């Protein structure tokens, strides 16, 4: 135990510009994320706790933490704001949790390219607001964007508001480079370019400590929010696809089926409880969306500029839909998948045949490899693991690609296969395997991947 070994504790305390926390309440609080959305993870992770939490105030302090962890072979788990869903920042083997919140400066915004270099502990809400003052904005926002850090999003997130246009974080062009600290006898600060950064992207902080990232940004837009009322889920899918096929700019395209709408905050369902399509577009785009709705006889509610709304759509979409349901009843859980192209209703109907209205459909429009696709984050009340995997199997049989939020590893939550480049990067930058142990499956069979 680090915190009961006076020699090690003293070494951490002697680092300038490092906050050291050993109070059990802090250790408990800063060892958790939102894993309780999965009853499976909840039972696995409830007891996991760091021995020590540190908060570096500059890069030098990070280098010194890395050196001590190497010297004493201490597990080191990096933490942003702890809004991850899969126990991503939970220290499975105890050790040190390093929270990056003080490393939060926007370092530069390039006028010509719009690339921003920012320290990883910067909150995305703050970063977006700084960018907006310079006429730019973040391309991708998780629905937790107000409280999540940019480093946590890059290492743990995948996409969100903006994915309809910009795809996913791992798509080439979103991450331009990063600064990384290695774990070793003499930890190094490396500047990686876009290609070298790829294996670090979405690796749960298992293969390097990221201190800064360079990401691409979009020109600032004033996104207007509109709600379209539909008479069925299949009509909602048709309308969303028509909107995706128009010559307008979109930031968001979400479908909530009416049983979900019923459970959303009052302001949202006060007019009608119907299946709804939620769109964010530019003002010119909204005119086209309204024209389409008129043509199909669908009524709309224009809310206004999303950033200026007291109640906006951002709090109802992506995993915030699940959050809203869980605010009422903690037995709601969810799945994540890419729906089969043009066979979305076929899959939904097959699931309906087996499970009736137990599974409720929440759909998000995304761009996948440049093509418009529909992803889904269906919600259902938890029964047991057996049923969960039966649902997963049926979805897979119907052609869905599952991103399972009930597992702990990078691979399990992704495509289910080891990315050899992530393992090689871990071998290079964290050869003792101290960073976030237990989260990179490929590391257990590293001989197979490191040639
Ligand atoms: C209600 C809800 C809605 C959500 N919506 C979305 C969504 O729309 N899209 C989405 O992608 N995700 C979503 N998430 C998941 C999560 O909020 C995001 O991925 C978020 O960006 C994580 O940021 P964080 O600062 O909280 O990171 P944390 O949870 O603290 O960390 C996430 C991972 O990144 C690693 N990490 C953090 N900082 C660093 C660093 N500097 N160097 C190396 N590794 C690091 C951690 O070790 C951990 O493995 C949602 C979660 C909830 C609970």
Structure overview:
The chain has 451 residues and is α+β, with helices and mostly antiparallel strands. It has 3 domains: 2-99, Uridine Diphospho-n-acetylenolpyruvylglucosamine Reductase, domain 2 (2-Layer Sandwich); 106-219, Uridine Diphospho-n-acetylenolpyruvylglucosamine Reductase, domain 3 (2-Layer Sandwich); 224-402, FAD-linked oxidase, cap domain/gating helix (Vanillyl-alcohol Oxidase, Chain A, domain 3). 32% of the residues lie in helices and 22% in strands. It has helices spanning 6-13, 24-29, 39-45, 59-72, 124-133, 150-156, 163-166, 194-197, 233-244, 258-261, 266-269, 283-295, 319-328, 344-355, 385-397, 410-413, 420-429, 446-449; strands at residues 18-21, 52-56, 76-79, 96-99, 106-109, 116-119, 136-138, 175-181, 189-193, 209-215, 217-219, 224-230, 250-256, 275-281, 300-305, 332-334, 337-338, 362-368, 371-376, 379-381, 401-402. The chain has an 8-stranded antiparallel sheet with strand order 15-12-14-13-18-19-17-21. Strands 5-6-10-8-9 form a 5-stranded antiparallel sheet. It has a 4-stranded mixed sheet with strand order 1-2-4-3, with helices on one face. The longest helix is centred in the first third of the chain and has 14 residues, at 59-72. It is globular, with a radius of gyration of 22 Å. The chain starts with 5 loop residues before the first helix and ends with a helix. The mean pLDDT is 96. Bound molecules: flavin-adenine dinucleotide (FAD). Flavin-adenine dinucleotide binds at residues 33-34, 77-85, 88-89, 100, 120, 142-144, 148-149, 151-153, 155-160, 204-205, 209-210, 318-320, 323, 436.
